[in-house]
Design goal:
The chain is of the alpha/beta class and 388 residues long. The chain folds into 2 domains: 139 residues, 2-Layer Sandwich (Nucleotidyltransferase, domain 5), CATH 3.30.420.40; 186 residues, ATPase, nucleotide binding domain (Nucleotidyltransferase, domain 5, 2-Layer Sandwich), CATH 3.30.420. Helices cover 40% and strands 20% of the residues. The strands form 2 sheets. It has an 8-stranded mixed beta sheet, with helices on both faces. The model has no long low-confidence stretch (mean pLDDT 96). The structure holds adenosine monophosphate (AMP). Adenosine monophosphate binds next to helix 10 and helix 12.
């Protein structure tokens, strides 16, 4: 079955056309700077060079039209379309086939993720108009986290407020964590029961997964909570927001500061990219070293919290851009967790590979894995299950 996976962000639209059975990727790309000047599409086909197509992308609907135009030149029949939706809220406890009703739900919960859900709904509209004979599936990033028990997902705010405004921990990266569980379970031949899944990319979150059930995660109502990220501050004292606003910052300025000007970028003072920060630290830059230490410290602080959600853990899995590619970060995190019985094999840790791999050190009480994530494949699997 050939599935087109679409992941519409606030100003981007990523796409991938793949065969679910063989995992062959026929084409993939990203429409960037949607609604901004200098928009372009980075497009790549199997065995081909990456191309940059300069086009006008005033909105997501037009971006989707370009994607269909590009893909129509390939000789590949699209059998189903999977849409990553950031916020499914209470409406999507699992992936759902798109109907007028389920598409209405994507818009109904959009106030919780206005920069994403409206654009995603517009793209779904375009796909249904363009290819009415092909089914669409919504795969919400928040679905997996709806399993989290109430004592862990509820905020201790007044009941009428949380009910009226649908405030709770929704989390994000759910599709990635679900995939990491699936791969870990297969790799360890069902020996993993309590997994701390670490999705460490430019956005980062942890998830406690016990026998496939999501017990807790580090992101909250929005993806701002939890770990320190590339440009996001993660958890801070919420009173800081009020303090900043009383000191003259507008609500939008605080929002922008916390999401785009904070995190590793703010602490290192040079970059949001771990590669630059690791190079800076190696050159003796104290701010870069502090950024790396803060990232690892917060990660382990929250690993312990995830372990508590399961009364222990037997496996920790590292994934996404940093988790898969930075042996230094994995080592720094594991060393800080030695008191909990985690040991990493430093030689195995250095090996680079795109495969799931075991980097557990001798005498470790916890299995340490690197599990490359693949959200697109996970979405395509859901499409196959619902439409195949
Ligand atoms: P993602 O959001 O999963 O695509 O991750 C992107 C982030 O991964 C980048 O911003 C980098 O900080 C990080 N990253 C990618 N490659 C490496 C690497 N070789 N070493 C350290 N960090 C990396």
């Amino acid at each position: 079955m050939n599935v087109l996976v679409i992941n519409a962000g606030s100003s981007s639209l990523k796409y991938q056309l793949l065969n679910v059975d063989t995992r062959e990727v026929y084409a993939k790309g990203n429409c960037e700077r949607i609604g901004i000047e200098d928009a372009f599409i980075g497009h790549e086909e199997m065995g081909g060079e990456k191309q940059k197509l300069v086009v006008d992308l005033p909105n997501h609907k037009v971006a989707a039209q370009h994607v269909f135009e590009i893909l129509s030149k390939l000789d590949v029949k699209i059998d189903g379309i999977g849409h990553r939706v950031v916020q499914g809220a209470w409406r999507f406890p699992e992936s759902k086939v798109v109907t007028d009703e389920t598409l209405g739900w994507v818009r109904e919960v959009a106030p919780l993720a206005p920069l994403h859900n409206y654009a995603e709904a517009d793209v779904i509209d375009e796909c249904r108009e363009r290819m009415p004979e092909v089914g669409n599936v919504v795969v919400a990033d928040s679905s997996f986290h709806l399993q989290i028990p109430e004592y862990a997902h509820r905020y201790a705010l007044p009941r009428d407020v949380v009910d009226r405004l649908h405030i709770r921990k929704y989390g994000a990266h759910g599709t990635s964590h679900r995939y990491i569980w699936r791969m870990t379970d297969a790799f360890t031949k069902h020996e993993t029961h309590k997994l701390v899944s670490c999705h460490l990319g430019s956005g980062a979150s942890l998830c406690a997964i016990q026998d496939g059930r999501d017990m807790d995660t580090t992101m909250g109502l929005t993806p701002l909570d939890g770990l320190i990220m590339g440009t996001r501050c993660g958890s801070i004292d919420p009173a800081i927001v009020c303090y900043l606003e009383r000191n003259g910052y507008t609500n939008d300025e605080v929002d922008d500061m916390m999401n785009k000007q904070s995190g590793l970028l703010a602490v290192s003072g040079i970059s949001s990219d771990t590669r630059d920060i690791e190079a800076g630290a190696a050159d003796g830059d104290a701010n870069c070293q502090l950024a790396l230490d803060m990232f690892a410290y917060r990660a382990t602080y929250l690993v312990a919290a995830m372990a508590q959600a399961m009364q222990g853990f037997d496996t920790i899995a590292f994934s996404a851009g940093i988790g898969e590619n930075s042996p230094e970060t994995r080592s720094s995190i594991c060393k800080r967790l030695e008191w909990l019985g985690v040991k990493v094999d430093e030689e195995k840790n250095k090996v680079r590979s795109g495969e799931v791999r075991d980097i557990t050190g001798e005498g470790s009480k916890v299995r340490v894995l690197v599990v490359p994530t693949d959200e697109e494949y996970m979405i395509a699997l859901d499409v196959q299950e619902l439409l195949g």
